[in-house]
Amino acid sequence: MKLLYSFCSIFMLLGSVSLCAQQPSGIPNNTDTTTAQAELQQLLNEYVDLSASAAVDVASSSRTSQVSAKQAPATIITITEDQIRLRGYQSLLDVLMDAPDFKMETYSDPEFLNVAVVRGVYGQDKFVILLDGIRISSPTNEIMPILENYPVHMAQQIEILYGPASALYGADAVTGVINIVSKRAEDMTSTIETRLLGAMYNKFTGSLLAGGNFGGGLKWSISGQYSRDAQPDLRMFYPNDYITPNNVDPLQTGIFQTAFGTQRPRTPVSPVFSTTIHSYAALASLYTNEFRLSVFHNFAQTPTSTPYTPSNAVYNDNAYLRNELTVISGTYTKEFNRGLAITALTLSRFDLNPSSNFRNLFSGLEPGYKYSFGAMMKVEQLVSWNFTETLTLTGGATYESFFSVPKGTDLTYPVNLTGAISGIILGSANPQNPSGIRADFYTLNFSNTGGFAQAQWQAAPNLAMTVGARFDYNSRFGSTFNPRLGFVWSPISASVVGKENRLTIKALYGSSFLAPAPRVAFEHYGSFRYDTVSRSYVSDFWKLPNPDLQPIRSQTGELNITAFLTDDINVILSGYYSVYTGLFTEVLDGSARESLYNGKYLGFPVRTILITINQGEQRSYGATANIRYLALRRGDSRLELFGSFTWMEGIVNQNDDINALFAEIPYISPLSFKGGLQGSFGKLHISLRAIIMGTQRAVALQRGNPQLRQTLPGYALLNGSLRYELLPWLDIIAAASNILDARYYTVYAGIEPEAAGIRAASNTGVFVRGIPQHPFRASFGIELRL
């Protein structure tokens, strides 16, 4: 630990740099720029235009809209192909671990495995993931794991836009937008690139990228990545957390001493403790200068035993969730005299495989099967027109048609997709009713029509203004209107030779909305038991749908200052204040508003019914200082230091009573640092990166003060990678995570650190002190270029 803090201190003294100030994609690999200032100047002038709709290739639209960095009304960071290779990134998860203002709660959720917290806002359903401008998040915003199913080996660059973007992208772009820009054939230095990596604890990752030219202007590219991770057996590294009653392994006996009492599942369990993760992705594209057709498919199978203790869940490989996504898109781009028009069609489908199941204390350790489906057809038209040399107008219209079967209750058997969708509620079959109770399945057909307009005006040589808005009408929840406004000022006059763009100040305002996804509005779960006295079913608990749920609304103000202190040092300071209203809050049915169910479900009495309503407000605010120091550039040697220092805070009140107390927001570390060094020395390339999270806030409130959260200790990680160019076509690769072999924990909703020493009777079966994380792990492999 002392070594890591010393490492951090060195960066602070040298002047580290942020990911926000990384080399942009516009600078070729091994560029011959003659001075560091020229490179840094190009860094600031490079702007990846995200002012187009989600159906537009973001990198392409920046060239046609002629928008410079001065006019960019957003905070954007760019991770380049060189940085991806140098740092050994294999997935979007690796990238976000290092990204400022992101806190990744890894291995902490039984449904999503890894959860992103962005600027104090929980969940990857709050931002949109794009591939070449096309949405590859779930079409109906089911939450998907972020693993190697979102690969980056084929990326030319990755663009992360922070803050609200619904004025351009519509629903769900609340905390930002992430766009993976894929390589085309002309971007590749070889026809085929393949990478094979093996890691400790039986992990394997393999990737392939290929591209070429059919002739006549028709080109192609394909890429794919597969990963299998057996994961470390954490019982060996966290023995105090994996203690079972009388040290008896329930997988060996088939008897589980759960927090709800002794449970003996009828379905056999394997004696092998195993939590294997499988993931893959594939992309194929066919394109000309004007037309592009792409097919993307990804897959992730993750264990559902996380984050339950071994006495409260079945740690077998057949207890998993299997998510799949397929996206087919076509775009046609036509340039005209002073502008450009883009027409796009997207078909997207999400599947939660019917074999997906939970086996924990809430299902009686029996497999509780789940199913979900979502599909979208989207047509979009975008036009960008240079009205004058200083005024660019952009507009677009969108029509989307959706179909969804939201995830419902635990089922006794997997859904049979060859006929009508049906199922039996888990545990409802008994001698009095052998066929059990049929489960509800909701099917939703809805549409969204939207349009946006934006004007970007270079009011003066050193002042740019952007104003725009988007209107959407959704057949489920009505209309939304989201404006945006931006001012970008370079106070140092361009007439001062050699000093232009040395200082840039941005003032930004934007609004956004999170649509009530079918998953949130219609998901339901609970159980029935047969009462021999009344000769009927009764229930102690159900969480039930609320079809009338409305969107969460947000507003954000932001200030950014970018300064080049010297030719080699770049500093970016940013601060934001966000307000989120109409939060999705679970309440007792009838406790706050009119009762939806009157104490019954499917005609049977239920003691406690929870529903989700729009209630409460969250305020999040913070600041980040990013520094980049180009320490060495001499011949074929280059050394760069970078770092980001983040402070974030916030308060939340999930009650409409204006006199109710606000509490601290959970899932954050108010203070954090991310930074490191990366260098190239001839054929040797190295990267060393630190992640230091301060005290972590859990969800549970302090017992003596309901305005404060219980806390977990922070943690410090050191990750690194090394690449050596053995031959012109062969690289040797090594990488390591958690180099200092720290034992640390992340946050999950069910943990209660104050109960860690007493194992309270109310414990729900999760790791009370936090979710144990992976130990030191090294990987080795090769990359071939043919």
Structural notes for this entry:
By secondary structure, this protein is mainly beta. It has 8 helices and 45 strands. The strands form 8 sheets. It has a 22-stranded antiparallel β-barrel. Strands 26, 27, 28, 31, 32 and 33 form a 6-stranded mixed β-sheet that branches. Strands 1-7-8-5-6 form a 5-stranded mixed β-sheet. Strand 41 and strand 42 form a beta hairpin. The radius of gyration is 26 Å and the shape is globular. It starts with a helix and ends with a strand. Residues 1-64, 66-71 and 493-498 have low confidence and may be disordered.
Instruction: Please state the average pLDDT score.
Output: 88
Count helical runs. Answer: 8
Radius of gyration: 26 Å
Low-confidence stretches: 1-64, 66-71, 493-498
Fraction of residues in helix: under 10%
% residues in beta strands: over 45%
N→C terminal distance: 43 Å
Shape: globular
Main β-sheet: number of strands, strand sense, barrel status? 22 strands, antiparallel, barrel
What is the tally of beta strands? 45
Helix vs. strand class: mainly beta
Short note summarizing the structure:
The chain is mainly beta and 786 residues long. Helices cover 7% and strands 49% of the residues. A hairpin with a 3-residue loop joins strand 14 (277-287) and strand 15 (291-303).
Please describe the structure with a list of short key phrases separated by commas or semicolons.
786 residues; mainly beta; six-stranded mixed β-sheet; 45 strands; globular; disordered N terminus
